[in-house]
Amino acid sequence: MSGDPTITIDVAATFTLGVEEVWPDGDQPDAIDAAAVVAVIAKSRDVRSFLRDWNLDNDFDVDVCVAVSNPHYVASADPLFPDLAPDPITYTTGRVTFR
């Protein structure tokens, strides 16, 4: 790993919607299945407009993990207590909750 940190962002969200929220104009198909919902979602220009248009942009969690080289790690060192030796990579994590 180079000296630059690696940043991982994981956005996880679960939304439960009624038929009237997915098809507000009342034009839902007779058979509502996953393919029908995917077709409606696919009409969105991009993920941000999908979240905004469906009013889903204020109820989810964003998990962040940053991995950076540990300046205290020495690969050639033979630690007296291997279980206590520093890891070569240091991770920090955080969460932002939007409600």
Order of helices and strands: EHHHEE
Q: Treating each run of at least 4 consecutive H or I residues as one helix, how many helices? A: 3
Q: Quickly give the structural class.
A: alpha+beta
End-to-end CA span: 36 Å
Strands across the major sheet, in which order?
1-2-3
Q: What is the number of beta strands?
A: 3
Beta-strand portion reads: 25-35%
Low-confidence stretches: none
Helix content: 10-25%
Domains (count): 1
> Radius of gyration in whole Å, from Cα?
22 Å
Overall geometric form = rod-shaped
Average of the residue pLDDT scores = 85
How does this structure look, described?
The protein has 99 residues and is an alpha+beta fold. The chain has helices at residues 19-22, 34-42, 47-53, and strands spanning 6-12, 60-69, 89-98. It has one domain (6-98). It is rod-shaped and about 70 Å long.
Q: What's this entry about, in short?
A:
The protein is built from three helices and three strands; from the N terminus they run E-H-H-H-E-E. It has 99 residues and is α+β, with helices and mostly antiparallel strands.
